[in-house]
Amino acid sequence: MNNENTPNVPTNFIRNIIEKNLKDNLYQHKKWAGTPGNKSHHQNSEIDVAKIRTRFPPEPNGYLHFGHAKSIFLNFGLAQDFNGACHLRFDDTNPEKESEEYVNSIQESVQWLGFKFDQHLYFASNYFQEMYDAAVVLIKAGLAYVDKQTAEEIKINRGTLTEPGKNSPWRDQSVAENLALFEDMKAGKHQDGELLLRAKIDMASPNINLRDPAIYRIRHVTHHNTGDAWCIYPMYTFAHPIEDALEKITHSICTLEFEDQRPFYDWVLAKLTEHNFLENPLPKQYEFSRLNLTNVVLSKRKLIELVEKNLVDGWDDPRMPTLVGAKRRGYHPLGFKLFMERIGVSKADSTIDYSILEDSMREVLNEICHRRIAVLEPLKCIITNYPEDQEEDCEVPNHPQNEALGSRTIKLTKEIWIERQDFMEVPEPKFFRLYPNNMVRLRYGYVVKCTGFDKDEQGQIQTVYCEYLPDTKSGTPGSASVKVKGNIHWVSAKHAIDIKVNQYDRLFSESDPGKTSGNYLDDINQDSIQTIAVKAEENIKNVNLGDQFQFERHGYFIVDTKQSSPENIIFNRTVTLRDSWQK
Fold first, then answer.
1. DSSP secondary-structure letter at 26?
2. What is the Cα–Cα distance from 125 to 93, expressed in whole angstroms?
3. Mean pLDDT of the region 13-29
4. Catalytic site residue 59?
5. Hey, which end of the chain has fewer CB within 10 Å, N or C?
């Protein structure tokens, strides 16, 4: 499908490339039923007829973060828009750091963002035989050799950005010698690091990535998918173009740090095609700028360090920029979609202010969240002229802008809780809430007038006293008879539910963690979480794990899925109603 006439689809340079490729009929369709040996390929080639193929290729060595979300929306989104297919492929070529836990979490996160991969679930490890065969093809063609240098010697002889590298003493050994040594590597006859298979390209190339890069190394490690079947594993930069070609990927989209690797990507494809191992049309690699956000780190190494040093509550800590953390915090997939549309896709590196992500979440949550009332800093208020035993229902809309979501009732009683910030003994200018002799409306209830207050020995306000005006209840004919400027929320002291709220803020206090201090850990915001006791309306007692609401005047909150229980209800603050970080 050409999306030129599709409304509200933001364009970008990759989308423009695809549209031109389709217009030029660059990709002649061939039915494809997957690669033999891939456990996830389907048998019916008739149902797999996509011309445009993209892929999302995470390494299963950690949980996905916000940067991955950008790639997911780009790759899966393009495939959707052009009636193509996006492959979820695990690049599991490094068994030392990979696990089934990460495999499962990645699948769940992709699905949580709203995308399906169905039969298009693949593992690089299912191509290990094909990759080995490809390496043999290169050896036979004189384009790869087994190097016996140590890692330190290879590093020294690689050269620098201004000096060419030096050829390995084993660079020109015979094809027969290389084949025998490579077979010995596969058979487990050598220790880790003892031998290395390298591509033979050009040790004087100005692009260091073309100075005979490594393509196979020895690792005596059990693999999460293939077990102990292999003790040699392909390097990512060698495996990736082969995977793309075997899966008939058309547009291999990655971030800018792989731009310098593109010549090797193309070299691998070209040489294997020349020697009839692969066939045209071949995939093309395109690079876009990665996501950079203020006040977070998106380095997997740093995220692992935060978890392993117990500086956060695991990968799903709501302060973590991981998708599991975002889900627990209450971030919404549609909020991520809106955010990605707003920041766009380009080749220019930039840093996005975190507030743009929060604004995107607010916009989405405002539309979908039911409202509830909670008092975060409770202050007792007694309506002195309200009958002691009287209770009455106040009707409250579940969403003021959406009548279809209905309404609920809350009880008004003599004693209520109000926000401490809604009362001042001596009001500041333009303070329209409660203070002595001033009147406000209890939201959804009556107009009340402040008649006094009590303090404790430390001078802290303990109780506020008011009188209500009986003919001013909201929704009644007399509700507009008294005009007031202030409108405050409240909950019944008798019926309020005690809950806890985790108020989260940015995990790092500095915009660019570590830039000034030299160590990003020094910039952890010590006030990034505050747990408070809260009084909430009685309807809160019926919530389920993961339920999400707007607490009126405060922000958006979600029932914590990890720690909350019916006996101990805990909410996580997703985002405030407006940006308060700079204030």
1. -
2. 6
3. 87
4. yes
5. C
DSSP string, 75-121: HHHHHHHTT-EEEEEE----TTS--HHHHHHHHHHHHHTT---TT-E
CA distance 488 to 190: 75
Active-site residue, from 19, 59, 305, 510: 59
Strands laid side by side in the 529-536 sheet: 370-372, 548-551, 555-559, 570-576, 497-504, 529-536, 374-375
Out of 51, 300, 319, 433, the active site residue is: 300
Six token digits for residue 568: 């101990």
- Options 158, 186, 290, 337, the catalytic residue: 290
Which pLDDT tens digit goes with each residue over 511-525? 999 999 999 999 999
Would you list the DSSP string of 314-358?
STT-TTSSBHHHHHHHT--HHHHHHHHHHH---SS---B-HHHHH
Cα 277 to Cα 533: distance, rounded to the nearest angstrom: 66
Token couple for 191: 């220790």
Write the CA distances from 269 to 120, 284, 285, 287, 370, integer angstroms: 22, 10, 11, 17, 54
Q: Which of 36-45, 152-161, 313-322, 436-445 has the lowest mean pLDDT?
A: 36-45
User: DSSP per residue over 44-83, as a string?
Assistant: -GGG---S-EEEE---SSS--BHHHHHHHHHHHHHHHHTT
Q: How many whole angstroms separate alpha carbon 317 and alpha carbon 338?
A: 23
Residue 12 contacts residue 344 (beta carbons within 8 Å): yes
- Measuring CA to CA, which residue among 362, 367, 472 is closest to residue 412? 472
Instruction: Tell me: pLDDT of 42 over 70.
Output: no
User: Phi then psi for 403, rounded to 5 degrees?
Assistant: -60, -25
Question: Active-site residue 101, yes or no?
Answer: no
Question: In which band, very low, low, confident or very high, does the pLDDT at 28 lie, cut at 50, 70 and 90?
Answer: low
Looking at 156-304, which runs of residues are DSSP E strands? Answer: 196-199, 214-218, 232-234, 251-255, 284-288
Cβ(446)–Cβ(468) below 8 Å:
yes
Burial tier of 446 (Cβ tally within 10 Å: 0-12, 13-18, 19+): buried
The sign of the dihedral angle between the CA atoms of 146, 148, 152, 155 is negative
Phi, psi of 145 (to 5 degrees): -150, 155
Task: Determine whether 392 is an active site residue.
Answer: no
Six-digit token pair at 440? 């406000």
Q: Tell me whether the omega of the peptide bond preceding residue 281 falls within 30 degrees of 0, making it cis.
A: yes
- Give the pairing of strands 370-372 and 548-551: parallel
Would you say 182 and 146 are in contact if contact means Cβ atoms under 8 Å apart? yes
Rounded Cα–Cα distance for residues 164 and 449 (Å): 84
